[in-house]
Amino acid sequence: MERLEGMISDIVFKNEENGYTIAHLANSMDDIVIVGCMPTLSVGESIEVEGKWVNHKTYGTQFEVSKFMPVIPSSLEGIYAYLASGMIHGIGEKMAKRIVDKFGVSTLDIIQNNPERLEEVEGIGGKKLKQIVKSYEENRELRNIIIELSPYGITPNYCLKIYKKYKNKSIEVINKNPYKLAEDIRGIGFKIADEIANKIGIDKYSDDRICQGILYALNQSLGSGHTYLPKSILIQEAKKILDVEASMIDNCIMALAYDQKIHLEQLNNQQLIYLMPYYMSENGVCKQIIKLSQCEFDDLNIDIDEEIRSLEKEENIKLANNQVLAVKEAINTGVLVITGGPGTGKTTTINTIIKIFENNKKKVVLAAPTGRAAKRMSETSQREAKTIHRLLEMGFATDSDDLMFLKNEEDPINADVIILDEVSMVDVLLMYSMLRAIKPGTRVILVGDSDQLPSVGAGNVLKDIIESNVINVVKLNEIFRQAQESMIVVNAHKINKGEPLFLNSKGKDFFFIRKNTNEEIIDEIVEIVSERLPKFYKLDKLKDIQVLASMRKGDVGVTNLNMALQKSLNKPEKFKVEENFAKRIFRVGDKVMQIKNNYTKKWESEDRKDSGEGIYNGDIGYIYHIDKENKKVHVLFDQVKIVDYTYDELDELDHSFCTTIHKSQGSEFPVVVIPITWAPPMLLSRNLLYTAVTRAKKLVVLVGDVKYLEYMIKNNRTNDRYSNLANKLNKFKQEGLLLK
Ligand SMILES: Nc1ncnc2c1ncn2[C@@H]1O[C@H](COP(=O)(O)OP(=O)(O)OP(=O)(O)O)[C@@H](O)[C@H]1O
User: Fold this and answer.
1) Within 6 Å (CB) of ligand 1, which residues are found?
2) What is the pTM of this model?
3) Cα gap 347→355, rounded to integer Å
4) Which residues bind ATP (predicted)?
5) How many other CB atoms are found less than 10 A from the CB of residue 401?
6) Where would you tag: which of 13, 671, 678, 731 has the fewest CB atoms within 10 A of its CB?
7) CA of 480 to the centre of ligand 1 (A)
8) ipTM exceeding 0.90?
């Protein structure tokens, strides 16, 4: 390891996302090219670097930096260069000169120890002084954190997140218990925390480590949709992560249960282990749903048959038997599930139910799990439909930054009837939050297609409720004539039954283009999306066509397809600003997707007259402007909402020329294009294909190898999830637990 010291004379390149920087370091002897992760570097800064000399094929000898430390500048020039570098908000070049002229070599000492004296400088008043002091402090602390943590492979973006969470306590928190990072900072998992712990010297066999490893294993299993793990599986998983004896893990499981971080439940001769919120939610869903289904509610006192007849006349339609049954059950029961595939008349049934209740002066409230699904429900019902999060009034807890729902059993939703659509997407946590905010006597109608992919979050709520046989379920199974015209609908049902599809019928809406290699598939998709489909069907290339892939990685995964599609659909142009972020280029005009719920993200209309909060997982927008000076990307959602992302928030955005099928749940697009090629069997499944195909309203184009299509249709191996909801619903009902 060698050390060098000098002043930064030039910055050749800086990647804003991961902090990788190439710069020139000048010292009395030489001008050296240094490379490495040095995100806070600025021209004129004096630094000391640690690292080694390397020989780059093209650029020759360079110094590869593993650690860098700012040297507090002592010369007047150094101090001036540091202050004038723009690192400190409120100080530009002119102000830097005035400050240095006034305080000379004591400048930095004054900013740090007697900052009020800055007011002696012309142009610095109370407000500016506060701004300078705050920025100087933050800068210093953030630097310290970056210097401490970059050797552990933590990128500057994460350092910033850590700093935002713990402020000046950051280093102290990490040194005391690095596993806290895994609990508190999204994106830092057990593995990174464990690496830091290892370097700090925390004992491999310490209880803290083992407990965190167990929680990590349980958290990981949520990603596969499990609400609990059987103890034997949990021990197996934790052993792989921790590399310690099973008995030690067993002891720590007991300690975690004692601390109420996890819950142990006996089922037959198995022990089930839940993270606490999941146990509470699973039990809560059972209790609430049985309670709501059993309590008294206002009788409508109407002749249902007569009401139905009159609505049928009004709409010029004859409801099928099961639709009539669904309407009657909706009126006569507390909780009802209406399920069915595409074109089976769910929407028509819901609209009839809404009208009957409204004609009888009942307040009907509509909601769906995502913004796009709620928008669609509004369109088809011609009434307001909210996202579940909005209906439950997302807010902040008074004594913390934690988000919570303001609607709950103490302040329930004011409604006589609540209809939830797309329930297959609702996980066990959200279902519990929803149900506990419904007052006894409100009728609840859950609508969804249980053959769609299950929720992204844990649980199998809709399927479990249906399978429990505890709640009334009406299954709509007739495909209506109008829907039969559509091969999308007909084929969707065929997929579900495992039957071969009708492909390439003339004048229809379902096509298969045969391509053998992955390269050919990508080329074909790029070509049809950018040329043939828009020309032939008069479509907007970006807005009307959505490419959906089953995998993120791989040749024909979302990442590669996005790169290929970007090259053709949004080429680089002189007038289009772009910015490099690790392996991604964000360019003005790019189609992007928000990939996590951000309930507090602010948006404004262009004329700033309208504003609001909340951008949700799956929302699609377009890059509208990139402001390099202020390091912000502006994205336009829903044609009116402009949202600013600082560079360190860009991990919430992904390109969306192509998205995963999972992310497309609850959304619909005029045209859907789907690559059909090899993937792990779990992703070559019937319900994945079914979900992708049912996203399309006008046209489906499959591109690839027909043998994988056949495999998908046959592969009915649904990804089994550990969920005890169906069983528990039965048990609770039998025990009459809730009637007390
Ligand atoms: N009883 C009926 N008689 C004739 N046509 C019907 C009947 N019910 C629904 N339809 C028609 O069938 C088509 C599909 O119905 P609807 O949109 O209600 O189904 P859906 O299950 O909501 O479908 P999707 O899930 O695809 O939105 C529509 O064109 C609708 O007008």
Assistant:
1) 317-320, 323, 340, 342-348, 480, 482-483
2) 0.80
3) 12
4) 343-347
5) 8
6) 13
7) 6
8) yes
What is the amino acid identity at position 555?
D
pLDDT tens-digit map of 198-209: 888 888 898 989
**Does 345 count as an annotated binding residue?**
yes
Angstrom CA distances, 216 to 208, 446, 455, 723, stand at: 12, 33, 21, 19
Helix or strand run (H / E) with residue 624 = strand 620-627
3-state secondary structure of 641: strand
Q: Answer yes or no: is 677 a known binding residue.
A: no
Query: Is pLDDT at 570 greater than 70 in this prediction?
Result: yes
Per-residue pLDDT tens over the stretch 420-457? 999 999 999 999 999 999 999 999 999 999 888 888 89
Mark out the alpha helices in 419-478 (DSSP H runs).
428-436, 461-468
Read off the pLDDT of residues 4-40 as tens digits, 9 standing for 90 and up.
Answer: 888 888 888 877 666 788 999 988 778 899 998 887 7
Among 84, 86, 78, 116, which residue's Cα sits nearest to residue 98? Answer: 84
Choose among 431, 435, 368, 406: nearest CA to 618: 368
Cβ atoms of 12 and 36 within 8 Å: the answer is: no
pLDDT at 121: 92
How far from 687 is each of 548, 664, 714, CA to CA, in Å?
14, 13, 10
pLDDT at 739: 46
Ligand 1 atom with least separation from CA of 320: 1
Of the chain, the end-to-end C-alpha distance in Å amounts to 72
319-329 exposure pattern, b = at least 16 Cβ within 10 A, e = fewer: bbebbbbbbbb
Ligand 1 atom 6: the closest Cα is on which residue?
480
